[in-house]
Each structure stands twice: as structure tokens, then as C-alpha cells.
Amino acid sequence: MSRFLTLGAAQFASQTGDIDANMAKHRDFIAQAKGAGVDVLVFPELSLVGHYGADRLLDVAMPRDDDRLLALSREAGGMKIVVGFIEEARGAQFYNAAAILSDGRLRYIHRKINIPSYGRLIETKYYAQGRYVDAYALSEDWVLGLLICADLYNPALTHLAFLHGASVLLAPISSGREAVGDEFDNPWSWATTIQFYAMMYGAPIAMANRTGREGDLSFWGGSRILDATGRVRAQAGAEEELIFARMDYAETRRARAMLPTVRDSNIALVQQETNRLVDRLGVPNLIRD
Fold it and tell me: Where are the domains of the chain?
């Protein structure tokens, strides 16, 4: 793998619950991205089923080895694609999931951890909570951290992704203007959040949002790719669009040498204080157990 990495984000309007129609959109964007030399292509959260796809939960959920996922993986070839779907796991547990696919295989999967139930968001009605944060290595230089939408609004989860070695953060989201409340500016909040993370951790970020309207939510698009200094290198408007930008690992090296956030993370202290807090609150200590 080269020390250069081309990140892409595919912004489009999913058809709620219509996997066939959404598969066709995925294929179109995969072809475009391959033609542009994209190495890693991120689709929006729940890209195969739509934001409200869980309203048809039993019809649209699929296992991680579903033929449709593997078909997209074959179409991707050597390019890595991040696809959002509802995973049906063992024991009929359903997860809001994102998979990294390439060369006919599922390479890595993340199950959304921070399941929101505020504003107009009711995900706890449908989804079990993911339990792990990790990262997927493309090479010694490029290690992919993958978090889904509200996961990034729990800073501890983002911190964990970088402690696991991530040098790039992939952020499939599903952000409607009205999702949190009329007084909350979702587009500005996302712009601020991902710029902070890019600068704080010296890491490029690819954020893919959907566009169009589903139910009571209007999706504003605004997908963007930032470099390791927090500069926006590519940004979509409000319509369907493929964006991409080429990243240089030398820039990540310089950014992390100037601001060594990962190096200076005191993991032992964080664990000690977390354990102390859990003991004081009298709840099961999941970290130690």
C-alpha cells in the first residue's frame, strides 16, 4: 500500500426498505469511485436500507455473510467499501452495522454502540448495542477506525479508536436537520465535531451523510473529507454526489509530531479512574470483568 491514500464518500438518498434499489445505487458509486482511483469508499449509515429501514426490520435484516453484501464486495475488487446495513446476528439480535468489504470478502464490521433515543431518533426501539471498538489495518501506515454517526458524539469511543491505532477515521452518518431539535444546528455540529477530531488526533476523516427526505427528516448531505490538519479537502452539497481526496501519510506524521495526543494518552490512569468511578456508583465493572 502506498503512503498515499485516496478517500471517497458516496452521498445519496436511500430508498427506505428497498434493498434492490439501494444496491443499484451502490454499484453506480462503486464504478465511479474505481474510475477515480479511490482506495476507500464510505457510504452513509444504513446505506442499504435507509434511515427508517428498521420499520421493516424482519424483511431487511441480513447476516454478515449475505450474498448481497458479498456481491458488492466482489464489485469493489481491491477497493475497500464501507456499507451500512441491519445485521441479524446470533439469537435474532439486530444491529445497526457498517462493514468494510473488498475482493469478495467481509473484512471488518462495526456495530453501532451509541444508540440514540432523543429528539426524533428512536433507534433503541430496534437495535442491540454494539460492544467493541477496534480498527482495521490496511498497511503499517493506514489503519482505519470506523464509527457510526452518534458513536462520534461519545468522545470516549473516538479516543478508543485512535488508541487502537487508527490513522484514518471513517464516519458513515445519517443526519437530518430536525433529528435532535429545532434549536440544534446539526450541520454545524458535525462540521465542528469532525474538524476537532481531525486536528486533535492528526488523522484524515471521511464523513458520508445521506441526502433527500425520509419520513419526518430532511437530510442535508454535506459529506466531507478532511486532512490531518483539519482542513476540508472535499465537500459535497445537498444533492447526490461522489467526493474524493488524496491523503499523504507524511502529513499525518507531521501533525502527530506537533500534537502527540495518542502518545500522551495515559491509558493506565483512565482505567484506574474508570474503575474507581464504577466502584463508587456500585454497577458491574465491565472493564475489569
Answer: 4-258, 261-289
